[in-house]
Please model this.
Amino acid sequence: MAKKKINVGIVGYGFMGRTHTNAYRQAPKFFDMPYDFVLKAVSGLEKDVAEAFASNWGFESFETDWRKLIERDDIDAVDICAPNFMHHDIAIAAAEAGKTILCEKPLAMNSKEALEMVEAVEKAGVPNMVSYNYRRIPAVTLAKNLIDEGRLGRVFHYRAVFLQDWTISTDLPQGGDALWRLDAKAAGSGVTGDLLAHCIDTALWLNGSIGSVTAMTETFVKERKHNLTGKVEPVTIDDACAFLARFDNGSLATFESTRYARGHKALYTFEINGEHASIQWDLHDLHRLSYFDHRDDSLVRGWRSIHVTDGDMPYMDRWWVPGLSVGFECSFIHGVADFYKGIESGEPAHPTFRDALETQSVCDAILKSAKTGAWEKVEC
Ligand SMILES: NC(=O)c1ccc[n+]([C@@H]2O[C@H](COP(=O)([O-])OP(=O)(O)OC[C@H]3O[C@@H](n4cnc5c(N)ncnc54)[C@H](O)[C@@H]3O)[C@@H](O)[C@H]2O)c1
Model:
């Protein structure tokens, strides 16, 4: 039977533009999907780059203004892979035009914007999801399944870090292509909205809602040349953030993120300690899940490293043979597959825009606490 065609328009040809485009190409091949994707158009700032990207990845056309992409009747689905400050306007315009929307994280610059986006997609009734892709790394999905089976029992502790080291040089400018992350006007915040948002989304998914937080942030390099103005300007993002949190289930948490941890490129780890068992995961070894179960026979009790490659592990029956692993790019392929399977079945894949609003509210509370020095409630 011929598959239905979904015409996709992607806004942004950078890092995420590549991972998402790859996902549309691969998902129907590896997963049973009722759809095939047609790469209709990509949009980005520079004409030459957009044209080369379209040609390399097999897009039928390109645009240099995202509004033109959304106005097109031949586009069914809009995929937002642009810097954070653009998500709000693109998503609302796409919702009003009746498009299906996949949006990169963080959903927005702050929870006020995020709420407006939630209202727009819900009013328009368009399918929507946010690309918090770590949920769909097979080892992380396995952690979710083990927790949901009750193997950990009551959870006492949640611990997450996300460490990088790429902004230590004082000569690094802020603003513009790729460096928009250092400019609060384009990013909303620093590591909080960029890296901790991932940690928070995973934590909310695995361990439930966070009630309150207390945080500290620091900006180590106070001024940088701005690529768009050519002037040296104050840096207003948080270079580093550490916060404590209380989950509604009574567990305590510590979270830390920085771009100043020399030697670490993308070290995202989390550990959860329960009454019966503990779980650890590490992005640098993403196909393994560490698990300790106190109920094991004492003679063989210890941390085990589960190689998440067997066919009964999440997603792995669609990939290679047992013993052979998949990588970072697969989390996006799984995201596209789940999103569209959810549209077909009527059971939406998560996180929806509304789910991702909660992460945004935690980020707002963190940034507020870093200013007030007090514990702040997460306002949802
Ligand atoms: N899920 C993840 O693991 C993950 C990883 C990286 C980035 N992201 C998110 O994806 C989104 C895009 O990030 P990226 O790393 O692909 O960015 P990038 O800098 O690599 O690409 C940005 C794209 O947006 C376009 N653009 C349009 N207007 C722009 C402007 N005024 N300034 C700069 N670029 C502009 C650029 O042309 C480019 O195509 C962000 O929201 C980011 O937070 C998610």
